Amino acid sequence: MPSAHLLAVPPIPVGDHVTKTIGGVTFNLDTIWGTLIACAVIIAMGFYVRRKVSSATPNKTQLLWEVIVGWVTDTVFGGMGPRYRNVVPFAVTIFVLVLTANWVELFPGLFHNTDWLPSPSADVNLTYALGATVFVVTNAAGVKARGWGGYTRSFFAKPRWLAPIRILEELMKPVTLSLRLFGNIFSGGIMIALLLAIPIYFFPATIAFSLAWKLFDMFIGVIQAFIFALLTILYYQFAVAEEPH
Fold first, then answer.
1. Under 8 Å CB-to-CB from 75, ≥6 apart: which residues?
2. DSSP string of 191-245?
3. Nearest 5°: phi and psi at 21?
4. What is the 3 state secondary structure string of 161-175?
5. Per residue in 156-202, pLDDT tens?
6. Is 185 in contact with 119 (CB distance < 8 Å)?
7. What is the pLDDT of residue 193?
8. 21 strand-pairing partners
9. Calpha distance 48→216 (Å, rounded)
10. What does the pLDDT average to over 99-109?
11. Half-sphere CA count of 71, side-chain side, radius 13 A
């Protein structure tokens, strides 16, 4: 039927990347390039702020960095105190990296996986790497703060029958952290693909909807970066806390 043909949407593959295999290991080149570009943007902004920094007349970029650093500092100091000020640069780096990676994908293509430059955070490999990094850093902080004995005893605090659940909860933190970011960013690309699959005679409306959704997708990128950084701080706080959580 014609109506069925109009609503037909081409398949949108998940995990379809530009790849290269070296020594039996497959690399997702689009994710690697997207991550490198995000890192280059962050480093360039850092050097720009350093060169233009001023206490009298700060520019907009400096003000943006001050807002981010101020929010992270207030969150860390409010939850853990000035003693753990070393968490601030780590959390700021996580927030800015995730946000920039989310915003790399600015131009919609025909499908999510054929965008001109897909967001690297729409690849579960990057989000898993970020989640694993947070897991290692937070648990290392827990061991440093309480020692191996105190860190281990925290899982077997009363009631002791909850120990397996506490261990499983700790192991699942990086997984849920990673999949939350991946799912939200990848779904934005799926929505663009669905909008652009509308028949050609709806083209003006399709473009308008796509641009509107892209702006909303950028807003979601900010929210997801905020959540990722906030959970990183909370996991660090839980790891160094004296009492079991």
1. 91, 230, 233
2. HHHHHHTS-GGGHHHHHHHHHHHHHHHHHHHHHHHHHHHHHHHHHHHHHH-SS--
3. -100, 125
4. HHHHHHHHHHHHHHH
5. 888 888 889 989 999 999 999 999 999 888 877 676 666 666 655 55
6. yes
7. 63
8. 26
9. 28
10. 75
11. 14
CA–CA dist 124, 132 (Å, integer): 12
Residues 157, 163: Cα–Cα separation, whole Å? 7
Tokens of residue 154, six digits = 């925290």
Q: Where are the alpha helices (DSSP H) in the chain?
A: 2-7, 29-52, 60-79, 87-103, 124-153, 163-196, 203-240
In this structure, which amino acid lies at residue 34?
G
pLDDT for position 196: 60
Alpha-carbon distances of 79 from 82, 84, 223, 241, rounded to whole Å: 9, 10, 21, 10
Report pTM. Answer: 0.82
* Closest C-alpha to 15, from 186, 174, 133, 132: 186
Cβ proximity of 31 and 182 under 8 Å? no
Angle between helices 60-79 and 87-103 (to 10 degrees): 130
Q: Which long-range contacts (CB under 8 A, 24 or more apart) does 166-172 make?
A: 166/244, 170/139
Contact 20, 27 (CB under 8 A): yes
